[in-house]
Each structure stands twice: as structure tokens, then as C-alpha cells.
Amino acid sequence: MADSELRLRPTASAKSKEILTPTSSDSEEEEAKIHRSESLSRTRITVLDVVRVLGGLFLLSCILSYFITNDSIFWGHRPGFTRPAWLKARVRGPLLLTETDLSKYDGTDPTLPIYLALNSSIYDVSASPHFYGPGGSYHFFAGRDATRAFVTGCFEEDLNGDLRGVEEMFVPLELEEQPQTRNMPEGRARTARGRWKVDREKAYRKGREKVKEMVEQWRQTFDGGKGGKYFWVGTVKREAGWEGPKKLLCEKAALNRPKTKAEVV
Questions:
Q1: DSSP state of 115
Q2: CA atoms of 5 and 7, how far apart (whole Å)
Q3: What is the mean pLDDT of the segment spanning 169-180?
Q4: Residue 235: in which H helix or E strand, if any?
Q5: How far apart are CA 237 and CA 145, in angstroms?
Q6: Is residue 237 a contact partner of residue 143, using CB atoms and an 8 Å limit?
Q7: Helices (DSSP H) in the chain: which residue ranges?
Q8: Coil, strand or helix: which one is 215?
Q9: What is the mean pLDDT of residues 106-116?
Q10: Which of 86, 127, 211, 248 has the fewest CB atoms within 10 Å, i.e. is most exposed?
Q11: pLDDT for position 105
Q12: Sheet of 121-124: strands edge to edge?
């Protein structure tokens, strides 16, 4: 009996062989893991794949844009880096020109670009010689800072950069004269004069804000506007007191002033 039990009891080496020998279910599970990992590796999207797809879409868009617009690969917009003049200006660096120097860039010299200035910032408008070059409808803007004329619309007397007093064109005429308080009681007269002063200061403040808004709109036109064909190149160098005596509002702007506060939008 004891001998048969000894013969039937597995030895330690036999146990270890049983542990080390993989079963069929283990093999199937390992194969399934391998298949899953292979399928994941095939379906995983890498950064390079994304770059390839985006690059292909961008190239297709550029081709379609060129064939449709027949001019630009960016759907009518030409960024500065696609323009030799813009690249040349970036390499050269910002200019610092006096008003005398700036006057040389009015388009009369074909070897020089066409510049105009707005609020002391100089912009290259060479892309539109039919507008700003000799004979162009806006040639009077070239080679100078005519910010005042951009606001007032007086293209003869206001071709300068002095904006002092321009806000008057937005101030109602009725606020230029103090209210008649001679026959009023002192209390009411004081109140009327105080209200007039507050209203007048408010109107001038709003007028200055409107002037800034108009200048900003023009800046957006020349600083990368018009499809990117205009761009900033430098600054006008000025000495203190360059404005000279304060200028009167031009006739055209003066005639268009609102008469009453009710007319101010």
C-alpha cells in the first residue's frame, strides 16, 4: 500500500514541469494579445499622420485658390512674406524719416517706393501706384503725413498731421456759446452754466474719441489692409513744436458740424 502511494505521488520535478508547460488556453490568450497589439499599432494615428493630412489639405486649398482667383494661393489675400517689398523692408528694419525725407517718396522717382504717413507712422503703398502715384486720384497723400485730411476730408488745406482741434467737427454749435442766464434767478443760472460746461466737456471728449476711431480705421487699411498689400515701414521723425500755431477747422468740416445735441449720433 505504501509502495503504491509512493509511486502515485508526483515528484517536485514533475510539479515544476506542469507549472512551466503552457496550456492551450494560455497560448490562445497570448495570441489574442499579440493580435490586439498589432491591430492597435496599425490603427494608431501619429502626429506625423496628422501633419501629412493637414499639409495635403493646405496644398489642395492653395491650388484651388490659385486656379479660382488666378492671382493668389491664399484666396485673394497675399501675406507680407509672399511680397518681395515686404521682405526687403523686414530685412532693412524700421525707417526714421523727417518730413523732408518722406516727401521724396511720393512716387515721382520710379526708383523709390511710394510712402504715406498716418499719425506719424509710415506705410508702403507702392502696390497701388494708380491711386498714390503721379496722376493717381490720391497722389496728394503720398510723401507726407496727411492725417488731418483723412479725418476732415479737406484735401487742400489739411494735408498735415496736426490733429489739434479736429474734434470740434463733432461738437454741436449750440455748445460753443454759454446759455443766456441774465434774467434767471442766481440758483437756476448757476445750474444752467454748470450743465452747459459739463455737456461741452462731454461733447469734446466724445469728439476726440471719434477722431481716434477714424484714425484707427485708416490705420487698419494701411497696416496690412487691402489684402496685405500695404504695410508699415517706419516712423516720421519730428522735433518738439512741429505742429506750429493751432489751425482752424476747415470750411467743409465747419459747415458739417451738428447744430444741436440732438443731431449728435
A1: E
A2: 5
A3: 89
A4: strand 231-236
A5: 11
A6: no
A7: 2-8, 12-20, 24-43, 47-69, 84-92, 99-102, 129-132, 147-152, 186-222, 251-255
A8: helix
A9: 96
A10: 248
A11: 97
A12: 95-97, 231-236, 121-124, 115-118
CA gap 146, 215 in Å, rounded: 11
| Residues in contact with 68: Cβ distance below 8 Å, sequence separation at least 6, in sequence order | 75
Q: Grid coordinates in use for 60?
A: 489642395
Instruction: Write out pLDDT tens, residues 176-207.
Output: 888 888 788 888 888 888 888 999 999 999 99
CA gap 108, 139 in Å, rounded: 10
Going by C-beta distance under 8 Å and a sequence separation of 6 or more, which residues neighbour residue 186? Answer: none
In the numeric block, the cell 490705420 is attached to 219
Cell of 262: 440732438
Distance between CA atoms of residues 157 and 207, nearest Å: 21
Q: Say what the alpha-carbon torsion angle 182, 186, 190, 191 is, to the nearest 10 degrees.
A: -100
> What is the percent of the chain where pLDDT is above 90?
51
Closest to 217 in 3D by CA, of 150, 132, 122? 150
The amino acid present at 59, given as its one-letter code, is: L
Set of cell numbers at residue 20: 512551466
Query: Regarding beta strands 121-124 and 115-118, do their DSSP bridges make them parallel or antiparallel, or are they unpaired?
Result: antiparallel
Do 119 and 260 form a contact (C-beta atoms < 8 A)? no
Residue listed under C-alpha cell 502696390: 127
CA distance 171 to 208: 10
Q: How many Å apart are CA 172 and CA 252, to the nearest integer? A: 15
Kind plus residue range of the DSSP H or E element containing 8: helix 2-8
